[in-house]
């Protein structure tokens, strides 16, 4: 974009600001309207939850009531099948049923009916039979023994609507013997539902599975026994689930309802708890009108403030233009660089990231802006970087250069070198830090490789002579401070020149690698060091080890080399590759005038003594104390 085009845009800034104020006011009105609608939905969802709790509780009550009836029915069935239907038995059971009915409020009636549909027990004299009733025919035709919950019917005793629960009992030969019947009054259930005050126009209905209303509150007498089987709750496939919210216009009283239905998983029952939608939303409507009046007043205030802001924007156009030019110049430099340029705010979050971030750390600029600037730094390097950033934020440092490890999206972790510089406001106060970072991972890998090559023998992988000399000095000084002992083993492959001449240099290299592997296997302690001393000669440094321990190490190494069984025909003594071992120990604190060279010399002499004695053996130096003068007073 050209500067002329930018300035044309700035000249239209007040108009855009005015449009922004209008949009803001419209947004506030829209958001407020949306929030009010959301509040309305929340009221409806809350009503659904409340109705769900009521429906679940009352469904459980209905199931518990039927279970209570069934427990009594089961006992009577067991008694009848054991004792039969003799008059004496029936008389006892009549008394028992009367006592149970009086003791349990929800039980309307309990009766025993024979295989012809005649009453064997009843609260009064009833001349009619029940042979044509649905529950009787069900048990007469079905051998099943589980309870059967029938449709609501009018009681023959007092004309009340009741729901029946019955079980079949059998004669001794297994044939149908009759039915034990228990009922719950619709009036009892309706009265129980009165305890749940969920709204002035709320209702609770218990319906049989075939759509007949068993009980309802309010107006139970008006609606009990009425069929609603043609309504969506029984016909719509999407509502044939165990439970759910249900919005409908009541076919009973014509009111819009918010409801929750619950189908019993054990009995053919459906409970529907509803609340009047208009009544439910009335408090919300009143509050919404009040809140919207405040919102309108706020929008008018914003409109006035916006008008003042537009005038102020006209005055600040030149300053804004200068700022844009400055920022454009910075971005031109930053986005043209192959290094990653970032700007870090005082809250340590990234304010700007150049496009080269995708190459340096694997993340695009838009993914990093706003994130913590130090989030990807390795925890071991983070304290140092954090300390420098803190010092720059306080104005104690103007710039810094540091190297650290940072996570990379694809490559795991990379090394970065960052140059940081403080940025300040016009008044001189620090407002952030600009960092220019580059990937120096390959450079670090090269450094690490060079360091490794400097201390490691390339053929055997053991420490080289340089590393051995450094560690020997370190361990000598440590042993002196700790007043501990220090041991050294010198190991030389016997007749190695003859081995090379016989089998060739590649075989000779393989032989040295095998010996090195055996020696390395013995360096099990953290302070032990195995090194290739030169040619076919190896050294093993053993801190805090006395002469006995040194001899044990040496003998294990010598024995392991021998037992490796590498053929060496020119080694006439054994016919395989062997090694001579010389060992020496000292206590630097007691031999203060001695140095590391004396220990090496003593071990070397012991090695040559082993060779002179026939090779393939260990000789410990017994002459070291004679070689090193005693400290005064020791």
TrEMBL record:
Alphabetical GO biological process terms: cell adhesion involved in single-species biofilm formation; negative regulation of bacterial-type flagellum-dependent cell motility
PROSITE patterns recorded: GGDEF (PS50887), PAC (PS50113), PAS (PS50112)
SUPFAM superfamilies: Nucleotide cyclase, PYP-like sensor domain (PAS domain)
Key words, A-Z: Membrane, Transmembrane, Transmembrane helix
Enzyme class: transferase
Domain PAC: 396-452
Organism annotation: Bradyrhizobium shewense
InterPro entries from the UniProt entry: Diguanylate_Cyclase, GGDEF_dom, His-kinase-like_sensor, Nucleotide_cyclase, PAC, PAS, PAS-assoc_C, PAS-like_dom_sf
UniProt protein name: diguanylate cyclase
All copies of domain GGDEF, residue ranges: 484-623
Pfam family, one: GGDEF
């Amino acid at each position: 974009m050209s500067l002329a085009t930018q300035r044309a845009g700035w000249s239209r800034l007040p108009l855009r600001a005015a449009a922004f104020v209008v949009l803001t006011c419209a947004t506030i009105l829209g958001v407020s309207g949306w929030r009010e609608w959301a509040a309305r939905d929340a009221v409806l969802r809350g009503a659904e939850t409340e109705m769900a709790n009521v429906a679940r509780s009352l469904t459980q009550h209905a199931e518990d009531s039927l279970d209570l009836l069934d427990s009594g029915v089961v006992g009577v069935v067991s008694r009848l099948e054991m004792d039969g239907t003799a008059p004496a038995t029936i008389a006892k059971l009549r008394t028992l049923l009367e006592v149970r009915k009086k003791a349990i409020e929800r039980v309307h009636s309990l009766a025993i009916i024979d295989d012809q549909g005649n009453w064997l027990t009843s609260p009064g004299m009833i001349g009619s039979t029940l042979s044509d009733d649905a529950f009787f025919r069900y048990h007469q035709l079905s051998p099943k023994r589980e309870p059967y919950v029938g449709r609501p019917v009018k009681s023959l005793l007092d004309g009340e609507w009741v729901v029946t629960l019955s079980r079949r009992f059998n004669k001794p030969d297994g044939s149908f013997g009759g039915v034990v019947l228990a009922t719950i009054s619709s009036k009892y259930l309706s009265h129980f539902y009165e305890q749940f005050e969920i709204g002035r126009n709320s209702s609770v209905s218990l319906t049989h599975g075939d759509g007949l209303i068993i009980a309802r509150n309010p107006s139970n007498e008006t609606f009990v026994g009425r069929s609603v089987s043609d309504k969506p709750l029984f016909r719509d496939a999407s509502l044939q689930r165990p439970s759910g919210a249900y919005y409908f216009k009541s076919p009973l009283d014509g009111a819009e309802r918010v409801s929750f239905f619950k189908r019993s998983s054990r009995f053919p029952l459906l409970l529907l708890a509803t609340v009047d939608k208009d009544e439910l939303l009335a408090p919300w409507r009143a509050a919404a009108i009040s809140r919207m009046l405040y919102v309108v007043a706020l929008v008018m205030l914003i409109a006035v403030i916006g008008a003042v802001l537009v005038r102020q924007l006209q005055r600040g156009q030149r300053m804004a233009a200068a700022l844009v030019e400055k920022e454009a110049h910075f971005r031109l430099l930053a986005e043209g660089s192959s290094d990653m340029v970032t700007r870090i705010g005082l809250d340590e979050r990234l304010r700007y990231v150049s496009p080269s971030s995708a190459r340096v750390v694997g993340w695009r600029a838009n993914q990093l802006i706003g994130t913590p600037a130090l989030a990807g730094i390795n925890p071991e390097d983070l304290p140092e970087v954090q300390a420098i950033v803190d010092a720059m934020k306080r104005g104690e440092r103007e710039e810094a250069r540091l190297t650290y490890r940072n996570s990379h999206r694809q490559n795991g972790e990379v090394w970065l070198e960052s140059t940081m510089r403080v940025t300040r406001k016009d008044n001189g106060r620090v407002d952030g830090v600009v960092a220019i970072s580059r990937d120096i991972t390959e450079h670090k890998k090269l450094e690490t490789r060079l360091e490794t090559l400097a201390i490691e023998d390339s053929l055997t992988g053991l420490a080289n002579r340089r590393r051995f000399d450094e560690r020997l000095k370190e361990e000598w000084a440590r042993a002196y401070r700790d007043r501990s002992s220090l041991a050294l083993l010198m190991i030389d492959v016997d007749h190695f020149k003859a081995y090379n001449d016989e089998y060739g240099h590649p075989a000779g290299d393989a032989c040295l690698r095998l010996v090195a592997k055996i020696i390395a296997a013995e360096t099990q302690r953290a302070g032990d060091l195995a090194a290739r001393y030169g040619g076919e000669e190896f050294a093993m440094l053993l801190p805090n080890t006395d002469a006995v321990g040194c001899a044990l190490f040496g003998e294990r190494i010598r024995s392991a080399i021998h037992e490796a069984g590498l053929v060496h025909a020119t080694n006439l003594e054994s016919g395989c590759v062997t090694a001579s071992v010389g060992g020496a120990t000292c206590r630097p604190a007691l031999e203060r005038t001695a140095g590391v060279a004396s220990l090496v010399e003593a071990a070397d002499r012991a090695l040559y003594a082993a060779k002179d004695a026939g090779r393939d053996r260990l000789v410990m130096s017994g002459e070291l104390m004679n070689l090193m003068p005693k400290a005064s007073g020791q």
